[in-house]
Amino acid sequence: xxxxxxxxxxxxxxxxxxxxxxxxxxxxxxxxxxxxxxxxxxxxxxxxxxxxxxxxxxxxxxxxxxxxxxxxxxxxxxxxxxxxxxxxxxxxxxxxxxxxxxxxxxxxxxxxxxxxxxxxxxxxxxxxxxxxxxxxxxxxxxxxxxxxxxxxxxxxxxxxxxxxxxxxxxxxxxxxxxxxxxxxxxxxxxxxx
Length: 193
Hints:
Shape: elongated
Low-confidence stretches: none
Distance between the termini: 68 Å
Strand content: under 5%
Order of helices and strands: HHHHHHHHHHH
């Protein structure tokens, strides 16, 4: 089988995914991975990565985790692969493993605010509220307009019974357009907290 077909299948799958036909895209990428010709390392990583994204889009999270583990194993210095693995693990509530994947991604790309946001959410789910606050604070330091990070920071501070400290981040999220933050802030004012 001609090796050039791998690149063509990558592109064809991408075209199907852009049209929202994730099943067709996944089928094409699986075919490229099963062919007798072994794709070059870079193509193989992209095939597994794209297949993982397709599996997530179709709700096949366990399959996505398998694909992203392949990506992380074959290209361990690529933060995006670790980030996707962390997101997939979060979707299955595997918080400890998600944090490990996200921390790995953050070591590789330390200025990526979304990684710290995801770590903060995972750590909050683990009940590690102090670590969650630190991660969320890092997210808003890196991206001061990150509305969801401000909101979650306020929520975690509130969970620590630090309502006074929570008001500022929640207010910033509300000012940024978060309806959840606006509702929570109104409730806090109404309750005197």
